[in-house]
C-alpha cells in the first residue's frame, strides 16, 4: 500500500498558556522567527520564512511529559551547550547507533528532543 502521507512534516503544533513568553523562548533558544501572531489565540513560528510551528493558546495546559517529536540539528554539542547557557532544563546527550539525542523542556514545561544523525 502506498503511504497516505509524505516523509516530511508540515509543522508542529504545541500549546502554551503564555504565547508571548513561549514565542520569545522559541525564538531566543532555537532561532525561530515569529511569523504571524494573535497572542490571544496563536503564534506561528518559522525558519527562513518557512512555517515550522504553531503555538496555540490554552488556559489549562498539561505539559507534554515525553518528547513526541525531535528537532534536527547539525551540531548537537553546540545546541546542547546553547540551551544550557540559556538556562533551559536540559538532559544528557544519549548516543545511539545512528544518532545522538537529548531532551529538554521549553518554558511551559513541555518535553522536547533534539537529534543529530550521522
TrEMBL record:
Pfam families in the record: Glyoxalase (PF00903)
Name of protein: VOC family protein
Domain VOC positions: 8-117
Coiled coil residues, start to end: none
Amino acid at each position: 500500500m502506498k503511504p497516505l502521507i509524505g516523509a516530511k512534516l508540515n509543522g508542529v503544533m504545541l500549546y502554551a498558556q503564555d504565547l508571548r513568553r513561549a514565542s520569545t523562548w522559541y525564538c531566543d533558544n532555537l532561532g525561530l522567527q515569529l511569523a504571524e501572531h494573535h497572542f490571544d489565540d496563536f503564534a506561528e513560528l518559522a525558519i527562513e520564512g518557512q512555517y515550522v510551528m504553531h503555538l496555540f493558546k490554552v488556559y489549562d495546559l498539561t505539559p507534554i511529559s515525553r518528547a513526541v517529536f525531535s528537532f534536527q540539528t547539525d551540531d548537537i554539542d553546540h545546541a546542547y551547550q546553547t540551551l544550557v547557557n540559556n538556562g533551559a532544563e536540559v538532559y544528557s546527550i544519549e548516543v545511539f547507533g545512528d544518532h545522538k539525542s537529548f531532551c529538554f523542556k521549553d518554558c511551559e514545561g513541555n518535553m522536547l528532543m533534539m537529534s543529530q544523525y550521522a
